[in-house]
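COMPLEX REQUEST
Ligand: uridine-5'-diphosphate
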Amino acid sequence: MSYARPAHKRILLKLSGEALMGDDAFGINRATIVRMVQEVAEVVNMGVQVAVVIGGGNIFRGVAGGSVGMDRATADYMGMLATVMNSLALADAMDKQGLVARVMSAIAIEQVVEPYVRPKALQYLEEGKVVVFAAGTGNPFFTTDTAAALRGAEIGAELVLKATKVDGVYTADPKTNPDATRYVSLSFDEAIAKNLGIMDATAFALCRDQKLPIKVFSILKNGAFKRVVMGEDEGTLVHA
Ligand SMILES: Nc1ncnc2c1ncn2[C@@H]1O[C@H](COP(=O)(O)OP(=O)(O)O)[C@@H](O)[C@H]1O
Ligand SMILES: O=c1ccn([C@@H]2O[C@H](COP(=O)(O)OP(=O)(O)O)[C@@H](O)[C@H]2O)c(=O)[nH]1
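STATUS: Structure written out below.
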């Protein structure tokens, strides 16, 4: 009898803030976060090293603040603080699930969480702890998708897994185009040239330059995360 083995040793999971909302209008939905953490635990228990970048869109989006006349950089710092709140909620849920999670922030907020120090993050991952990267890249005018690409490259992740509400990259935004069809795989150049709105161009460009593939999959589909980690046919692969 043969046992299936994970296709990846170290991965970076990008969860959008909205993924934590579940069916709520904003904030963090407890049942949703618990379900997600259970899926992460399954993968960690198979020996896969998992780092997470979490967004903040469920609490605050810098662009929205900027659009109503607020200074964009200030609004972005609020957005980054929102990701810290989500990180704390996620790490708490992970601890309750028996995982050991460590939050590391890109902005100094040391009474709350430890700062991001790359060698320390690598050490935690080697020890089987889940590292949650908070505060995005620490810079305004960026997104947590770019933070996912950056941290993914820094920790030598083999794959960035982008969890979304859609089950892959489509020829157009499936929310507004019911005729859009899903790609099984596509290149970074194609994704950038066609301006496929699933991730921002900065994130795509960074992954392209570092030859770090991205798998886009649905967070709403039970077991999809594990299937991606096992290398099964799920979602869309964006590759160099
Ligand atoms: N070509 C495309 N293929 C798939 N999704 C797309 C595409 N263009 C835009 N989208 C949208 O991008 C979103 C990406 O999901 P997600 O990252 O969770 O959202 P956000 O970053 O806005 O929080 C999807 O909800 C989808 O509607
Ligand atoms: O490196 C970063 C990452 C995030 N943000 C701010 O934090 C908000 C929340 O992040 P994001 O929109 O990426 O979250 P998600 O869509 O994944 O929930 C963004 O709108 C930005 O305002 C930022 O300024 N720099």
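REMARKS: The longest helix spans residues 72-96. The radius of gyration is 17 Å.
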